[in-house]
Amino acid sequence: NLNGGAVFFIFGATGDLAKRKLFPAIFSLYRERKIGEKFAVIGLARRPKTNEQFRDDVYRSIQEFARYKKIDDVEWTAFAEHFTYMSLDINNLEGFRQLNELTQQVEARFNIAGNRLFYLALAPEHFGTVAEHLKAGGLLETDGWHRLVIEKPFGYDQHSAAVLNEEITSVFKEDEIYRIDHYLGKEMVQNIEVLRFSNALFEPLWNNKYIANVQITMSETVGVEERGAYYEKSGALRDMVQNHMLQMLTMIAMEPPSRLHPEAIRDEKVKVLRSLRRFQSREDVLKHVVRGQYTAGTKDGKAMPAYREEPGVNPASVTDTFFAAKLYVDNFRWAGVPFYIRTGKRLATKSTEVVIEFKNVPERMYFAEKNRLEPNLLVIRVNPMEGIYFKMNAKNPESNNDGQPEVIPVAVDFCQSCRVGYNTPEAYERLLYDAVRGDSTYFTRWDEVSLAWQFIDRIAEAWNEDSSDLTYYPAGSWGPEESHQLLARDGFKWWPVQ
Ligand code: BG6
Q1: Is the distance from the beta carbon of residue 383 to the nearest atom of ligand 1 less than 6 Å?
Q2: CA trace torsion 84, 90, 93, 96 (10° rounding)
Q3: 426 close to ligand 1 (CB < 6 Angstrom)
Q4: Which PANTHER family does this one have (predicted)?
């Protein structure tokens, strides 16, 4: 499955992402025999370290974060052999030449045919330099494939993203660039496509004739932790909305692709982003968007500080830790259907869910006297629970049969994560494996990123004018009241997340 093998270069090998996600992902792929023995990992960071020290780091990261924690001595010795460390100053071209020599030795040892995957778990300001030095250092002069995997944030706005893109595309071709959005690696996000296009039940109803609104929630209980300095500049808008939320929205709204081919799928996603109605003015933004910031609060009896008291945060900060908006996808399928999206830190529950609320049947005609019918809901649970939940109406078996049955909502619940022995692959495992196989379906293409920024920039510009619209919510709550009003004005409400 990995013909010719590959070398994985991990830039930022002493960082958090490598520790929490990348090493455990590589181990799972190894354990599941997806990458065989013809692979090598070269860890790169500035700090000096021996191979032994590096391998100890990898071992600890597996113990703490991997899905498979049990590893015996024989397996560990065989796995650890594949890991090499080199201290590298990315500004020093000479270091890249040495890296190339080291790589050739490693490739010879593991019989790898020049396939090279460069994973940049680094701040984006370094992407350009690394790309340039990879080329100048001779690392791209092999017969095999070369792929660049990069992490978000991809720029700060449309302009900076375009500059960044130019830097990397002067060295790598678009089809060699794998931009990670780890939400696209999640099982249930990938399942959206399967659900929609493999069931006779949904596709005929998936439009403005039958759907009243769509709700996407990504709530987190954590605050900004140690990332205050980064988050101050990004806020929820850039941290979650520009990427994860808009990506989920495109998966829900896209047309069936002509084939299950990466470019065909991404073409459809781009069309959704093109159809997304852009805000025209500050008034327009204020009418459709709510931004909030958490104040001090309590959860389970525990006191939690305000955002402005977090380390690395300006005590007068106006950064958004909560975002809710009403969006429209202006095309034939979705005309008139509001998409409500919300995300925030320090909310009541950690949950990612999509709710499709269907239009009601003409209830006045039938069960009107005794009942207020609840609408049908299709709930796609992404995280931490995985599954699908369908709420429909049925007769209450206990109700008296006096001519008018009592109607109650009942649930059809498919809980994927409840299945015994089920151990879902981590997003990073899937994405890393996809990158190795050369499947870019669940990575974001430049035109998607660019359109998403163009949409976001309008909001950011309106917010920059002044911050009087910033609302506040206590840590541990469900966000500011204004977020509820956004739906109440249309006669809807946020359905409680499970
Ligand atoms: C990251 C954001 O992209 O996604 C974080 O930078 C956020 O702020 C995280 O906490 C959420 O991811 P997940 O997989 O834990 O829902």
Answers
A1: yes
A2: 20
A3: no
A4: GLUCOSE-6-PHOSPHATE 1-DEHYDROGENASE, GLUCOSE-6-PHOSPHATE 1-DEHYDROGENASE G6PD
